[in-house]
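FAQ: What does the model actually see?

It sees only this:
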Amino acid sequence: MRYLHTMIRISDIDESLDFFCNKLGMSEIRRVDNDSGRFTLIFLAATDDIESAKANQAPMIELTYNWDKETYDGGRNFGHLAFVTDDIYALCQKLMDKGVMINRPPRDGHMAFVRSPDGISIELLQKGDNLPKAEPWASMKNQGSW
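And it is asked to produce this:
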């Protein structure tokens, strides 16, 4: 498993970039505007991580700006930690065997979510191409929130 990014929601792009880039010294690596989802993702890297972030898409901070205004309470401005794994099905099975609830199963062979004991959302991503859809994952329903 390899650490990818931490996602936090932001309410003002300019204010956030001023803080993270101008004040903290991070650099913008890439930006994604998603018209259909009505959000912008901005990926930042610390000075010593720029080369790795460009080559490996990690380690980074993902700033998520939702175009429709909403108030974030209960820690929802902190989104999730993200890790990539060689076999998402094997990792999810290992977690289930150890009593971890799979909140969002990897139905697509690509992405799953679990929560830490303190409720922190953790995104698990398949390295490379999606795995072929397989049971029990393909028909497994979401559980709780993620």
